[in-house]
Amino acid sequence: MLKAISRIFKIISMLFFLYLFLVSISLMSHAFKGFGHGFAERLITTTSNPFVGLFIGILATSIIQSSSTTTSMVVAFVAAGTLSVRNAIPIVMGANIGTTVTNTLVALGHITRKEEFKRAFSGSTIHDLFNLFTVAILFPIEMMTRYLERTGTFLSSLFLDMGGVRFTNPIKIVVKPAVDLIYGVLRRSIFVSEGLLNTIILAVSVALLFISLYKIVQIMRMLVIKRADIVFDKVIRKNALLSMIMGMLFTAIVQSSSITTSILVPLVAAGVLEIEHSFPIVLGANVGTTVTAILASLTGNIAGITVAFVHLIFNVTGILIIYPFKQLRAIPLKVARFIAEICAKRRILAFVYVIGLFYMLPLILIFLSKYFR
Predict the structure, then answer these.
(1) What are the extents of the domains in the chain?
(2) HSE-CB of 40 using CA atoms within 13 angstroms
(3) What is the C-alpha R_g of the chain?
(4) Average pLDDT in the 356-372 region?
(5) pTM to 2 decimals?
(6) Alpha helical stretches, state H, the chain
(7) What is the rounded distance in angstroms from the CA atom of residue 208 to the CA atom of residue 23?
(8) How far apart are CA 175 and CA 172, in angstroms?
(9) Is the CB of residue 262 less than 8 Å from the CB of residue 104?
(10) Residue 198: how many other CB atoms lie within 10 Å
(11) Cβ–Cβ < 8 Å for 149, 93
(12) pLDDT computed for residue 194 by the predictor
């Protein structure tokens, strides 16, 4: 009886801290959007250089922490004639890299526990590396052949005038009351500028992230590791395609690859899941995040629909090129473990990695391109 009560209490605690984790991610996203939404819009509409467009996509998405938001803005600008399809494609590629910043930031929540952090960081950087490798392969191919543009245009012509579909995000509905409450309390009790309020919100979100991650991993080890092993043995570890489909469907439902990949990080950190088995779920999330944008764009003009399809084709092509071949898919796995090993030994390098890859490098290259133009 006591054992059953203890188990129920652990399950309730697990659900509470998972909710807290999702609230922290939502708060963090809101804070970053508050800092840089206008800046991101100005960035996106000020380039005709494909190489610079790639880094604009990385920076804009890293700032607002949502490839869906970046892609939606790009689709809107293309539909309005402010941005050409050709110039939009590198930005969409960059958005795919920038969106991985969220789960990498989540991995930093484990930084005080070395072995746990090493697993978490390898679990998060696998997403960064796969998308980087896909861009490294497809960016030059696109510049030479216009493969994505031509295929996207063809597919969009088939689906034009079908009528769009709008989805409701269940995660957003669930966490919105808590996010609104925290925002409302802080706004009413602290009379500061919008910029400073967003800074405070960011600090609160980071604190909630650290607390929730610590408790999730702690409870998970006590509660689910044995049972999870049985489930993973039967499903995830034996069927990569099913794992991809699960990742795709879950991401299409919650409308955020960041949520899917961020939930995987504590599972990897706790040792419940190896990165070889989280990898196909991440790839499915890459595809799932494009589904709602395509369905929603079907009411627009052909140029906007083309950009939405380009995002899908980019992700599917990356999977088809890399994942079926053992030697190729081993590269991001090995590099992820190598980076995690180094960052676990000198944890300051994890911050250098995040700030350098997602913010400083794109910012410097964009600035240099504008300065020497």
Answers:
(1) 12-371
(2) 28
(3) 20
(4) 83
(5) 0.78
(6) 2-44, 50-64, 67-80, 85-98, 101-108, 114-145, 147-159, 170-189, 194-223, 225-234, 240-254, 257-269, 275-297, 302-322, 326-345, 348-355, 361-371
(7) 8
(8) 5
(9) no
(10) 18
(11) no
(12) 72
